[in-house]
Design goal:
36% helix
Length: 67
Amino acid sequence: MPDESCRNCGTELQIESTCSECKQAIQQICPECGYATLERIHLDCTLGLEMVNKSKQQLQTQKVDAQ
């Protein structure tokens, strides 16, 4: 369950960074004291992105080989 308030001062956390795949928050930061949560890597999104990149590379290799 994601943090909603700072563990140090209780201020509501703001989104610091988002997942490039699903756009959900992966890290939050406190605007008051600067406390930052650990990054939460989405395994499904990471694996999905790696598979897409691998498929693109394979297609590019096939195009080069065909020429």
